[in-house]
Structure formats: C-alpha cells, structure tokens
C-alpha cells in the first residue's frame, strides 16, 4: 500500500476542474492519440507478455543479466531491479561511451545474457555497445543468439534488422507506448529476467488504473495540480525528489527523466533534482535553508529498509542516543527532522510513503507518476510525448560523426 500526503489546494484545483475532466477523458480515449496505449494497458487483454514470449525468455541460461539501453528504454527496469533483492547479478551498460570493454572483460568467466533495448532501434549508445558485445561474444566462442535478446518497437530500425539477420529472439513493443511512458509494459521482460514477480507488478498498476479513474478528486491529479501551483503561483524553479533509502534512488532518477523530457519545453517546467539523504544534507541543505527560495519537494519514503537494531558499545559516543533503535527508526527520525526544517523554511513538500518495497508498489507508483506527469503537462498546454530538445542533440551528433568520417 502507498500513502499519499499531498498538499491540496482545493480552491486552485476547482479552477482547473473543467480542464482536468477534459484531459482525463482524452487520456482514456487512446483511439485519439497514438501515444496513449500506456494509459489503459494495465486493464488490456495484453497486459502481460504473450506466453510464447515468456517461454522464449525463460529458455535462456544465464547467471548475469546485462541490460543495454539508455533513457526510457532502461530507467524503469533499473528502478525496480535495484530496489528489490534478485537472485542473479544485473549489470547496466550502453548509457555512455566509456568503460564498455572493461565491463565486458569481467564477464569472460560468466554466462551473460545481453538484453539490447531501443524503442526506435536506432539509438546510438546501445548500438555502439551492441557491436562491442558481438565482438566479445564471438571472441569468447559464445553464440550470439544464445546470449542476446532484443527489444524494440520499430521493425524498420537497425536493431530489429540486426536481430533478424542473426536469428536473435526479438520482443516488439507496441508503438503507442512512448519510451518514458512505457514502464508498465516495455520493462516486463526485464522483471521476468531478473526473476521478480511480474504478476504482482501488473496488479499494482491495475489497481492504480481503477483507483485513479473512478474519481477526478484523486491524489494523482492533486499531485499534478500541486506541481503547477508551485511552479506558476509560487514561482518555484527546482523540484527536489528526496529519498532516504538507496533502494528508492532509481525511481527518483526515473521520475527526473519522465518529468524533464515531458515538461521541459516552451520555457516551462521545473528542473528535477534527486536528493539522497542523509548524504546530501551535508551539501545541498545549506542552500535549501538560506539560498534562493526556488525549490519545492517530493519525499519518496519507505518503512521497509532495515529493521535490525543499532547497538552503540560506547555510551560516550554521540551516536549512543540512537542505541537500541532500529535503522528504520533512525531513518524516520532523520526524515522528520528534515521535514520540520523545510516546513519552517516554507519549502512546499508532499510525502509518498510505501509500506514496503515490492513489485506491487512499484507497479502502482510507476502508473501514478506517468499519469500525473501527463496531466501536469497538458494542464499547461505542453505535449508530454515530444522531445525536440533531445532530438536536436541526436541530430547534431549524427552530423558531427558523419563529418568525422570525411
């Protein structure tokens, strides 16, 4: 279960209610827009992967899962896999152009499975990694189609054609699931490959769908409106996503990408920043207390971190005051202290509390954030599904690479 403590502004919410209703109806009419398959996916007939696809996935023999992708193709998978205990080792490559070969060198004595992911099938970072992986596999006498899996939504893209050529198993995504809004479907294969509970994950998203559909006065839409209020009425420019557990850093980073690429257009939006507590209390906190008044905050918390007790052997040590407390209790004390300080300094904040870290809660939270993001963008007349700024960088890079060849 997830508890949402959202700072509601009922008067401001009512002024937007007519537009909220219009957007809500639009989101649930996926026939109108090729980018809306994700909205109704949790309750669709294909909410889980085809049984034949699952069977093919389960045939792979591996002790190390290597996820190869960048941005929306990989962030959701990392968020859930890094938060939950898995029975196999999981490695991530293809997000930059460094250290690929050094990572591959560590896999010579392993049984790796490389999952290459690109919605377009033409993303440069994973394609560069792909050919290094091919070289690694052939030089170590490993068959490419026994150690590689491909996922893409573009049958005309290079990655799909590569998979066909080398007789590699290919998972095709629906083309109405934009990359950063694809957490509920495109990442199911990685949840299965990491040997996590995919059915519980889908159930969480399904419950979120129904709970956030039946009534417009729901925490998801209040969350969206709260973000707009802080940005437009209070003139806040930075959105802090503060977590007090390493296991939640991944979903905070996924949220940053979702918000940045969806909302950061037309000189609008707030810049999202992850704060990992208590480490960042010794750096950013000074700015929050006495720097420019430009921040609002989302706390993402869990009770489920470490229930073991801290025992201090020295009563004269300053940490002795925490002796016999569980680490969860120490963490909770840290949070309440931070929130009190931020409340005193009038930093607007919301609290999202997971009763435990599990697949169900991640499925629910992914859907909650995706829908809140879409609502927030559309209330400000922003297309949440385009990314012209990212495309500019990609086009510039292709031009420069082609010039280097001449």
What would you note in describing this structure?
The protein is an alpha/beta fold and 406 residues long. It folds into two domains: 2-28 and 203-379, Glucose-6-phosphate isomerase like protein, domain 1 (Rossmann fold, 3-Layer(aba) Sandwich), CATH 3.40.50; 40-196, Rossmann fold. It has helices at residues 10-27, 37-40, 51-58, 75-81, 100-105, 124-139, 158-165, 188-193, 198-211, 219-233, 249-263, 284-290, 327-344, 359-379, 388-405, and strands at 2-5, 64-68, 89-93, 112-117, 148-152, 169-172, 238-243, 271-276, 295-302, 349-354. It has 15 helices and ten strands. It is 45% helix and 14% strand. The strands form two sheets. Strands 1-10-9-7-8 form a five-stranded mixed β-sheet, sandwiched between helices. It has a five-stranded parallel β-sheet with strand order 3-2-4-5-6, sandwiched between helices. Strand 4 (112-117), helix 6 (124-139) and strand 5 (148-152) form a beta-alpha-beta unit. The longest helix is centred in the C-terminal third of the chain and has 21 residues, at 359-379. Helix 1 (10-27) packs across helix 14 (359-379).
Give the percentage of residues in beta strands. Answer: 5-15%
CATH class bucket of the largest domain = Alpha Beta
Q: What structural class results from the helix and strand content?
A: alpha/beta
Radius of gyration: 22 Å
Average pLDDT score: 89
Named at the architecture level, the CATH assignment of the largest domain is 3-Layer(aba) Sandwich
Helix content: 40-55%
Tell me the distance between the termini.
58 Å
Shape: globular
In total, the number of domains comes to 2
Q: Which ranges are low-confidence, i.e. pLDDT below 50, for 5 or more consecutive residues?
A: none
At the fold tier of CATH, the topology name of the largest domain is: Rossmann fold
């Amino acid at each position: 279960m997830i508890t949402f403590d959202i700072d509601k502004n009922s008067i401001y919410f009512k002024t937007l209610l007519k537009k909220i209703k219009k957007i809500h109806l639009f989101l649930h009419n996926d026939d109108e827009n090729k980018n809306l398959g994700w909205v109704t996916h949790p309750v669709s007939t294909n909410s889980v992967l085809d049984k034949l696809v699952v069977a093919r996935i389960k045939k792979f023999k591996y002790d190390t899962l290597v996820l190869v992708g960048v941005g929306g193709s990989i962030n959701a998978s990392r968020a859930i896999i890094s938060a939950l205990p898995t029975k196999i080792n999981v490695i991530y490559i293809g997000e930059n152009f460094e250290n690929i070969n050094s990572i591959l060198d560590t896999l010579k004595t392993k049984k790796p499975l490389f999952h290459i992911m690109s919605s377009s099938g033409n993303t440069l970072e994973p394609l560069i990694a792909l050919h290094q992986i091919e070289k690694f596999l052939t030089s170590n006498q490993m068959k490419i189609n026994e150690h590689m899996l491909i996922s893409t939504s573009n049958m005309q893209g290079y990655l799909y054609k590569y998979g066909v050529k080398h007789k590699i198993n290919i998972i095709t995504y629906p083309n109405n699931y934009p990359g950063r809004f694809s957490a509920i479907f495109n990442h199911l294969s990685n949840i299965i490959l990491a040997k996590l509970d995919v059915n519980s994950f889908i159930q969480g998203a399904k419950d979120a769908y129904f709970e956030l559909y039946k009534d417009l006065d729901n925490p998801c839409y209040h969350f969206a409106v709260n973000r707009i209020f802080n940005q437009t009425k209070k003139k806040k420019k930075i959105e802090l996503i503060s977590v007090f557990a390493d296991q939640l850093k991944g979903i905070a980073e996924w949220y940053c990408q979702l918000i940045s690429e969806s909302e950061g257009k037309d000189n609008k939006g707030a810049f999202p920043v992850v704060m990992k507590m208590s480490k960042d209390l010794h750096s950013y906190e000074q700015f929050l207390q006495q720097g420019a008044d430009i921040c609002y905050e989302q706390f993402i918390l869990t009770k489920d971190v470490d229930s073991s007790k801290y025992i201090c052997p020295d009563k004269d040590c300053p940490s002795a005051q925490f002796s016999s407390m569980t680490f969860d209790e120490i963490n909770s004390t840290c949070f309440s202290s931070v929130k009190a300080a931020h409340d005193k300094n009038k930093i607007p904040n919301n609290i999202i509390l997971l009763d435990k870290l599990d697949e169900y809660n991640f499925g629910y939270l992914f859907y909650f954030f995706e829908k809140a993001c879409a609502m927030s963008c559309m209330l400000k007349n922003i297309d949440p599904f385009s990314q012209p700024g990212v495309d500019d960088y990609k086009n510039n890079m292709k031009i420069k690479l082609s010039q280097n060849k001449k």
